[in-house]
Protein 1
Amino acid sequence: MYKRQLVVIVDNNNLQIDGAIDEVNSPYPIDQKFEAFNFHVINVADGNDFDQLDAAFKEAREVKGMPVAIIMKTVKGKGVSFMENQASWHGTAPNDEQYAQAMEELEKAGEALCQK
């Protein structure tokens, strides 16, 4: 019989609505906090890298008898020049011009990924 496993995914872009999390309300060390609750922790150095994410999920599938926490270091707004690493985009919608620019930049990024 297949047993389901708890996998927690933490997208750590180091930002929250008021700024950098280590300056506003730091959760660090995130990995050690999960380990204290008997989680198997997988740290992903670049959560925007699909190969690293694939490896993390493969590792998570192999873990038996304990929950897993995948902690990914990511870049907020990755692929959109004016959104990258900007906390202000947590609660702001782009206007029509910004939306068009963002979609153009993301389409180019997507095409580059498909050529790999």
Note: The radius of gyration is 17 Å.
Protein 2
Amino acid sequence: ISMSSIHGLTGGKGEVAYSTAKAAVIGLTKSVAREAGKYGVTVNAVLPGLTLTPTIEQFLADKYKQEIIDDTPLGRAGQPEEVAKVVAFLASHNASFVTGAAIPVSGGWSA
């Protein structure tokens, strides 16, 4: 399970290097999924949007957090547990036929 970012799909103003790196993670995930499938290995990526981690809380100014929240269809930032639940699903047998997926966990931010 790879961790990318919603910016890997959408790009981001002032985020050229970050968005490029996260897009590369998505491409890597999809390519490895195609190669590893014959061995029964699933490979997927999770693409979080704004998630209220301690680092975000400490270093991202409230002004910028609010701008992202205002542009998010669900109208709020995510919680780490919400991202973790998607990771847990992908790691479970319930996702045994899911591979090559890039799953946004962004409150609809990429919509």
Note: The first strand starts at residue 2 and ends at 3.
Protein 3
Amino acid sequence: QVFLNRAQNSLRAMREASERVLTVQAGVEAERVVIRFRDTGRGIPDPKNLFQPFQRGAEVTGMGLYVSRAIVRDFLGDLTHEPQARGCCFAVGLAPATVLEEVQV
């Protein structure tokens, strides 16, 4: 649900952009799995209240980032905004899952 929200927000933000590119990148950083969603949309001019519910000027309900961050935190992760010179970037950081050894019975 979180990834779908990020992708849909990016697509809405790029509607009027001349170049429409959404890049989803995953990797391991400091023992965390980090998934970044970067787009070439209009960006976020004032991110200080970004994760508050019922955002003024939101195109839908203004709850997407608030709920998305709550979901990610339930999995001991975090959702953050990473300021960019152009466009927008959000990062989802998660603890890697442990792999259990399969036991033969």
Note: The chain has two helices and four strands.
Protein 4
Amino acid sequence: MCLGIPMQVLHALDGRAECAGRHGRGWIDTALLGEVRAGEWLLTWLGAARGRLEAAEAARIELALDALAAAQA
């Protein structure tokens, strides 16, 4: 199963951004979205940003991922 993971932009450079999420920090390819800014939430998958998220939507996805992890445990 492939799942998108919400990550928050810490700082951005041309075509990539350092982001933080449930699995720590990492560099994300942002070429599909264009310019991103610190503080924005992104839906990421396989090291690339696939879309922008509102903070509330990112929180709902995090809750769903928590529930999935609990069900698997």
Note: The chain has one helix and five strands.
